[in-house]
Each structure stands twice: as C-alpha cells, then as structure tokens.
Amino acid sequence: MDKKLSTYYTNKIEGWKTYSDVPIRFESNMDTSLTVFYLPERKNKASDQASDQASDQASDQAILEFCKEPKSLQELMEYVGMKHRTYFRKNILKPLLDKELLEPTIPGKPTSPKQKYRTKKHK
C-alpha cells in the first residue's frame, strides 16, 4: 500500500475513534477496499424485548392517564416528546385506538382540526 493510502486509512481510523469507541478496520488492495465496523453484541435479546414491551406498556398507561380529559393530537405529541406526526399517528395513536383504549371525540372525522382523543371508559 502506498504512503498516501496508508495515511488516508490512518486518518479515517483516528477520526472514527474521535466519535465512537466501536472498533473499525480498513482493508485494501489495488482493486478493492473494505471497511468493517464491529458492533457490540447484544447479550440477552429476550430480556431487551421484554424491557421494550414493558416500556411501551408504561408509555401507553401514561397516555391513557393523560387523556382522561380530551386532548388534541398536538397535546399528545408534546406530552410524549414527539415531533413527527406521521410516526406518532401510526405507531403510538393507532394501536391505542385499535385496542379501543382511546377514542376520538369526533369519530367520523379523524383528521378534523378539532379532533381530540380521550381514554375510553369500559363498562
């Protein structure tokens, strides 16, 4: 490997170390180059999944508690600290509506600017 290429890779590796402690390796010959990033292995995927599920359930409970009084979509998003409306609707709001845990105040008009959501009272 020539001196310029060697210096290039050394600089890239040092630059990477500035931003991350994840090991990196560069390989090169005259025709190709390869960059390998070594990501840390997750020890217990089942435990991580259970933790994620518990966290989701806690978030759902917090939203349901918050929505005892009707809240707008914007109020809900601010409450959970989200800014991406589409993501929030699809991944947070829709599952709660599908499970009938939340209900819209204007059922026939899901995109109405006056639409609010409240915790559904089960009998």
What is the CA-based Rg, rounded? 24 Å
Question: How would you characterize the largest beta sheet?
Answer: 3 strands, antiparallel
Query: Within the largest sheet, what's the order of strands?
Result: 3-5-4
Given the helix and strand composition, which structural class is it? alpha+beta
> Can you tell me the number of structural domains?
2
SSE run: HEEHEHHEE
What does the overall shape look like? rod-shaped
Percent of residues in beta strands: 15-25%
Q: Helical segment tally?
A: 4
**What is the rounded distance between the termini?**
75 Å
Fraction of residues in helices?
40-55%
| Sequence stretches where pLDDT stays below 50 over 5 or more residues | none
Mean pLDDT: 78
- The total strand number stands at 5
Protein topology:
Layout: H1 3-19, E1 24-28, E2 33-37, H2 45-66, E3 71-72, H3 73-80, H4 85-98, E4 102-104, E5 116-119
Antiparallel strand pairs: 1-2, 3-5, 4-5
Region (Disordered): 103-123
Pfam family, one: Fic-like_C
InterPro entries: Fic-like_C
How does this structure look, described?
The chain is of the alpha+beta class. It folds into two domains: 3-37, no CATH class; 65-123, no CATH class. It is built from four helices and five strands; from the N terminus they run αββαβααββ. Strand 1 (24-28) and strand 2 (33-37) form a beta hairpin. The protein is rod-shaped and about 75 Å long.
